[in-house]
TrEMBL record:
One Pfam family in the UniProt entry: DUF1348
InterPro entries: DUF1348, NTF2-like_dom_sf
Protein name listed in UniProt: DUF1348 family protein
Gene3D superfamilies xref list: 3.10.450.50
Domain of life: Bacteria
Native species: Chitinophaga tropicalis
Length: 137
C-alpha cells in the first residue's frame, strides 16, 4: 500500500514536517511529484473549483503553473489534530504580461491512515503587487 510519511496521528513535530514537505513539493512546480501526496480519489475545493481524484489534481496543477509563472510558496502550520492539518500560506507569481501577484490563503487538510491527503479545501485571495514588493524568492 502507498504511504506518505509522516503518518497520522500527528504530533507538533510531524505536523510541521508534513507542512514543510508539502511546501517543498509545491515549490517544485511538478504536478507528477505533487499529486503523489493525494489519494487516488482525493476531494478538493480550490477557490471556486471542485476537483476529484489524483488525475484531475495533476491536470489542475499543470494549468495552474502554466498561468502562475515563477511561483514561490510559503506555508505555515496553523493547527492540527490526529489526521487533520490547517495551514495558512502565501505565494507569489506573475502572469504572462509580467504582472506580479501575492496570493494569500488557508487550507484544511484531511489524511488517510497511509498519510495521503484525501481532502483539501483552499480559500485564496490574490493581490496585485509591484515586482519591488516581492517578499518570496
Amino acid at each position: 500500500m502507498e504511504q506518505k510519511h509522516p503518518l497520522p496521528p500527528f504530533t507538533l513535530d510531524t505536523a510541521r514536517q508534513k507542512v514543510q514537505l508539502a511546501e517543498d513539493a509545491w515549490n517544485s512546480r511538478n504536478p507528477e511529484i505533487v499529486c503523489k501526496a493525494y489519494t487516488t480519489d482525493t476531494e478538493w475545493r480550490n477557490r471556486a473549483e471542485f476537483i476529484n481524484g489524483r488525475e484531475e489534481v495533476k491536470a489542475f496543477l499543470t494549468r495552474k503553473w502554466e498561468k502562475e509563472l515563477d511561483y514561490k510558496l510559503k506555508k505555515e502550520l496553523w493547527s492540527f489534530t490526529e489526521n487533520r492539518i490547517a495551514v495558512r500560506f502565501e505565494y507569489e507569481w506573475h502572469d504572462s504580461n509580467g504582472q506580479w501577484y501575492r496570493s494569500y490563503g488557508n487550507e484544511l487538510w484531511e489524511f488517510d491512515e497511509h498519510g495521503l491527503m484525501r481532502k483539501r479545501y483552499a480559500s485564496i485571495n490574490d493581490v496585485a503587487i509591484e515586482m519591488s514588493d516581492r517578499k518570496l524568492s
